[in-house]
Amino acid sequence: MMRKNTPYIASDSTTKASTMEGTRLPDIRELLLIIRERFWIGLAVAIVVFLASWFHTIRQTPYYRSRATLVVEAQVPPMLNFQNAVAFNIHNLEYFNTHLQALHSRAIMEQAILAAGLTNNSAFLPDAVTLGQKAHAALRYVSIEPVERSRMIHITVQHPDPAIAVDLANAVATAYRQQDLDNRMQASMEAVDWLRQRADEYRAKVEKGLAALQQYRESTQSVSLEEDQNIVIEKLKDLNSALTQAQTERIKLGSLRNQVAERLAKSEDYIKVATLLDDNSVRDALQRYQNDTSLLDQLAQRYRPEHPDYQAAEEAVVVSRRHFERVFTQAGMALQRRYDLAVDREKQLKKALEEQERQAFDLDRKLVQYDELRRNVEAEQDLYQTVIARMKEASLGGTVPTDLIRIAEEARPASRPAYPNRQRMLVRGGVMGLGAGLGLILILYYTDHRFRRYEDVERSLGVSVLAALPVIPGRNVRERGLVAHQQPTGEVAEAFRTMRAVMEINPSVENAKVLLVTSAHPAEGKSIVALNLAISYAQDNRRTLLIGADLRRPSINAIFTDHQDQDGLSYVLSGRKDWRESLQSSNIPNLDLLLCGTRESRPAELLGNGKLQSILVEMQSRYDRIVIDAPPILGISDTLILLKQADGVLFVVRYGVTHSMGATHAMKRIRDSGTPCVGAVMNAADLRSLAYSYYYRQYGGYTR
Question: What pTM was estimated for this model as a whole?
């Protein structure tokens, strides 16, 4: 037999269904339907929770709430122009948190109880005897909370007596403010005492330092070492400047002398060397000589050498030349004397500078110890003056209160209880009741893995549900098996006709002549479904054959005969009879039967011997539809053998009985066989339930 490659799911949403297989996540419409199905259970739980919340609310003792507000100042009030002796980093968050934690102390609570006069108040903590016990017990009525993004602190007190709540809140705020002020004033006074002791110590140190400084002056015989140091430094500056000038002069004269000596050693004319000497007498003599030489040159052009004027001019040139040489020689000797004087002066200045430096070093050595003594005295004097000034400020500050903690708002009596808020608690009880009811509905839905709705079947198995069959009426299995024939206008018959029509309009079922009907477990109604489906095909004027293939529990036999050892499929497969001889008439037009026959000890081998396949080929030429009532899939292998012989599988699940995990496993085996599953049938469904109200109106309302 040739099998077409048809999809497993007889619908146009195969991909979507297969991806959703095994999940149980309903959409919003399904969720509303699930809630409607178990509405009364959820409502009962909601009412119980609401009533419990209401009884709990009316039994609670009412508490009144009063609140006082403290402000932690961000800066010290500028009352006087001085700082506190005890420094507080009031801008630090830790400073604010310290106040916040200190408000929780038992000491503050004890002071507040005493200040409010609650010690002997019988309405305030009657079970507590001592003050410490009352303070410890009162802490649970007091709530200390900071105000976000501010430096304010709320002190909230809740108590059954509104007057006690007000008094205690104001008393806590006042007690802490007073304690903070007392602590800071006490700290200021302690600081004054400490500063006074330090002042006495520094005064003694100043006096001792001054005495040591005076003794050192006397030992060094120095009235004022600072002035001596200034004089020595000035002398050093003058000597150093004079030495620098002398060295410069000596270098200049030495350089000039050496240049003159070098040129004379080269036998250069005095006239060329004279330009180096910066001497007026040399310049005058040179000028006179040059003038006489110029005059001689002029006379040589006019006269002969024998002329008296020429001879006189020539004599004048010789005289001026000698005078120039004599002056030049004297200038060179004067240069040498100046150079020698410069050398002597430089030596004397060096000697004087060295002497002055020795005196400066001696003075520096004296000043080292002197400066150390003087600095110590000055430091001690500064500290002493600072301590004296700080002591005066602290003494004055200890008598002037500066509030860093102040009461921003006093507590006021409450007009109505703050707790319990009955309206809010009743609303909360209602919300909790609805949540508990809804939660129970969802828990019942998700913990119940039995099929009750179309969507559960399609979501878990990945196949379409062709029809939901109502509970088939009847006193016995025979009446239920023939209900489609005996009550052709009833809702059961209409349901089978609907299922038949759905399968006929599906292209994947159009050519599936051999249809196998099975289920996951026994007692799920697959035999009743197979028989009534065959009757529905026969009523549609189609030649139909119903084959009872459940050789272990032949339910079909019980419908048509009272004898279990009846001729049927087991005889045909074992070769004892031809299939045509084993056919029986059902007294229903167009419907023939091939019953199961006798029970067999090894039905799997009988179904798998290959004979069934050959006779099915012959049957298809005679019948339009062949419906096989197969055994359940799980637990036995019979149906796995029959799956290979069928063109399609109709899977039956029973409402409220079939378990999703078993059905999913069975569907996996069907898919592994390669035989397409045309769909599923929900058997024995309660069509009057909310889940099937729409379908019940369709079948029950219209058909009736």
Answer: 0.47
